[in-house]
Design goal:
By secondary structure, this protein is mostly helical. It is built from four helices and two strands, in the order E-H-H-H-H-E.
């Protein structure tokens, strides 16, 4: 299973969701979904734009994790 490390890398480089969306020239909603769900499927085109905006390789944005290790974020409805 693949997990996106976009949120962590963006925050390390001083980007928030809005600034990353602007810099990568992609929709804010797309970035918001990626930040909320690092296991979400995204297109290669989006990964490429984000990698360019963050000045990293696409390989830096992804990591392989064993199946069944996804961490569920709290929904805030509790």
């Amino acid at each position: 299973m693949i997990r996106l490390k976009i949120k962590e890398i963006a925050e390390e480089k001083g980007f928030n969701q809005s600034s990353l969306a602007r810099e990568a020239k992609i929709g804010f909603t797309t970035v918001k979904r990626i930040f909320r769900d690092p296991y979400r499927e995204v297109s290669f085109n989006v990964l490429e734009k984000i990698a360019q905006a963050l000045h990293v390789s696409i390989h830096d944005l992804i990591e392989e994790v064993p199946l069944g290790t996804e961490i569920q974020e709290p929904s805030g409805n509790e």
